[in-house]
Design a protein that fits this description.
Elements lengths: L10 H17 L3 E3 L10 E5 L6 H14 L3 E5 L1 H4 L4 H7 L3 E2 L2 H9 L3 E4 L3 H5 L16 H9 L3 E5 L8 E2 L3 H10 L6 E2 L13 E4 L13 H20 L19
Parallel strand pairs: 1-9, 2-5, 2-6, 3-4, 3-5
Antiparallel strand pairs: 6-9, 7-8
């Protein structure tokens, strides 16, 4: 599916997102560190670490649009667009089905493109793999950056891994490997599925600029860029300070 290059979230959608996400922002005393790294214009490949909760990524997207006026366009898992109801919501907030062609089109159009290289597999990490990158040999996002000359910004929310305790399970791994479905055994607050009241802070890296594209060396360039972004992500995941005692909305508005 070709992405809508003229997409702008409607005021109604933004208001609805605020109504849903604002209570979560207060619940988690959410803040974002490093918003100044976003350029005012031009393409950006925003590489995120995928938590099981997932909604932390939407809180980040809302913070970015409120602080910079720019919308993060995301490449969504096919499962999102095969689920009735969810597909319409995903499209309404600017997500598009993941494909290299869609990613290139959005970056060439000067958009901020959000991707999670680890995808669903990363979100299913058990508790003994908290704060770890699970990208394995994936280089697709790095190829996008190299081909389009787009700077890469890494972003992580380390304590999102503490919202749930995810138990290791051979069945979880088997179902994902065979069906690409998220069968997970986890708990949140006490024995419930309510997320724990953990303070969430997103940390944003400085831009990582890819080398000029050399088609003959594209894979080599992509691997080197992937490795550099992974190192940056691992550094962000080590930043697990307790943070400020209460959430303050002004933390999100540093560029306004």
């Amino acid at each position: 599916m070709h992405p809508d290059l003229d997409f702008e979230p409607s005021p109604a959608i933004l208001q609805r997102a605020r109504r849903i996400l604002r209570p979560l922002q207060y619940y988690h005393r959410h803040r974002v560190v490093g918003l100044e790294h976003f350029p005012d214009t031009g393409p950006v490949l925003l590489v995120t670490h995928h938590s099981l909760a997932t909604y932390d990524a939407f809180m980040l997207g809302l913070a970015v649009i409120e602080a910079t006026g720019r919308t993060v366009r995301g490449l969504g898992d096919d499962l999102l667009f095969k689920t009735p109801g969810v597909a319409q919501v995903a499209s309404a907030i600017g997500l598009v089905p993941a494909s290299p062609e869609a990613g290139e089109a959005l970056l060439h159009a000067g958009e901020i493109l959000g991707v999670a290289p680890g995808g669903m597999w990363e979100s299913l990490r058990p508790r003994d793999q908290r704060y770890q990158v699970r990208w394995e040999t994936r280089t697709g996002f790095a190829k996008l950056a190299v081909r389009t000359g787009s700077p890469v910004i890494a972003v992580a929310c380390p304590r999102a891994d503490e919202l749930y305790t995810v138990y290791p399970s051979a069945l979880t791994d088997l179902v994902y490997q065979k069906l690409k479905l998220p069968l997970v055994f986890a708990r949140g607050m006490g024995p419930t599925v309510l997320p724990r009241r953990v303070q969430l802070t997103h940390y944003i890296s400085a831009p990582i600029v890819p080398p000029p594209h050399d088609p003959a060396r594209e894979m080599e360039q992509a691997i080197a860029l992937r490795d550099a972004v992974e190192v940056a992500m691992e550094g962000l995941l080590k930043r697990r300070e307790p943070g400020i005692p209460v959430w303050r909305g002004a933390e999100h508005l540093g560029r306004r």
